[in-house]
Write a structure and sequence with these properties.
Elements: H1 9-23, E1 31-36, H2 42-51, E2 58-63, E3 71-76, E4 80-87, E5 92-98, H3 110-118, E6 124-130, H4 133-136, E7 147-151
Parallel strand pairs: 1-2, 1-5, 5-6, 6-7
Antiparallel strand pairs: 2-3, 3-4
Amino acid sequence: MELKEQLTGVPGMLRPFKAYLRQIGLGAGDQVVYYGCPGTCTPFIELLGFAVRDLSLEQVYVPYADEAAAKAIRPAEGVGMQVSGDVVRVDPKVIVLMGGLSMPGVPVAKEAVQTAVAAHPGAKVVGICFMQMFEKMGWLDLFDFDLIIDAAIDPVRVWR
């Protein structure tokens, strides 16, 4: 895999994601399933979901790799996209692995994530991480990513 472009800011993360989903020709109702850590990955998943809300896709959040706990991601009037309480069946055309899954101390083994991905042959695999987390944790060799978006949150400045 080679670096194709270098962008900045939140649009630099969202626009290539939306362009990729358009490019691969997903149809109405096709499922994009985001696997990530509760709390830390969820806001980014909802942001990604908001960016592609007009593509008529079914969007699903899976905490860690627990597909039995999969929840629909739905529009919330005046808020954006939010993970719902509705449990849904997982049948992805696109699997989105969030970088938080690869971080040390996360209570999910990489093997569990590999098993979840392997259960959906033919699904495209997208990785979205920050600060080279997939690279640092060796996940570039574990998964056959079709697209990786690696964003930076640097510097973080705080005024008081």
